[in-house]
């Protein structure tokens, strides 16, 4: 069985459940519902779950969970950056936990028509929702500078300028509409594979997906929304899969737990009088076990961070009241 054909497995499920510590009667938000793997396991503890997802294709999975667990589950179609609004819509009084599984799911990668993967031919779309700018819109209309910038920033691609130049040259002859067409153009721009451990288009496709879905901005908004919404003692659990995501979560928790690294010894340190809104459950990040990584390749890069909400008022960083 190929990696892409493997069943969808919830990454670090035992560790997620341990960090959430959900009990009967608790209300938990599964901020990235997907195929419902985390949700089903949380519901099995007796807790209630509010699932969030902006992807319209998850409805079939939500219907199956609803049929099995009834009123203890509800799905709200929304990006998790609006977690606070979704919780208010749910009608629940107290939020005891929130879990995030960040990034594209294997379920989305497996759907060629979604355009996430360069391993399957499909329309160059990459939208997790069904509205907004597509990847084709970006590669066919953006100027060289902004295009190279996102490929470098979000894809951490050193050859971003060369790739952007190749895209502009090719689109002048014919616009890009298909995933394999773009992947082939990138591969040619970088001189072929030459035994590279990953496909030459990997980082560019990641960058486009992040830009199309504003994934990093969504993550920042989601963390702030969880901070505003979790009750005292509520647990925040986040699983990330690459360094850009993990850095945002790490910095957020360092700041909100009062554990930011010290400043320069030559410069005065500003005193922040805001009280910590979270306490870490453990230092650093947990990784998946070797056993899980062996059977689920997606788990190899996973990092889990978790914290408990204190009684301090939320910081109004994002400006949302």
Automatic annotation (TrEMBL):
InterPro entries: RsmH, SAM-dep_MeTrfase_MraW_recog, SAM-dependent_MTases_sf
UniProt feature coiled coil, ranges: none
UniProt: S-adenosyl-L-methionine binding residues: 36-38, 53, 80, 101, 108
Catalytic activity: cytidine(1402) in 16S rRNA + S-adenosyl-L-methionine = N(4)-methylcytidine(1402) in 16S rRNA + S-adenosyl-L-homocysteine + H(+)
One Pfam short name: Methyltransf_5
Primary location: cytoplasm
Localisation per UniProt entry: Cytoplasm
Enzyme Commission number(s) of this protein: 2.1.1.199
Highest taxon in the source lineage: Bacteria
Cross-referenced PANTHER family: 12S RRNA N4-METHYLCYTIDINE METHYLTRANSFERASE, S-ADENOSYL-METHYLTRANSFERASE MRAW
Biological role: Specifically methylates the N4 position of cytidine in position 1402 (C1402) of 16S rRNA.
NCBIfam families: 16S rRNA (cytosine(1402)-N(4))-methyltransferase RsmH
Entry similarity comment: Belongs to the methyltransferase superfamily. RsmH family.
Protein name from the UniProt record: Ribosomal RNA small subunit methyltransferase H
The species this protein was found in: Brevundimonas terrae
Underlying gene: rsmH
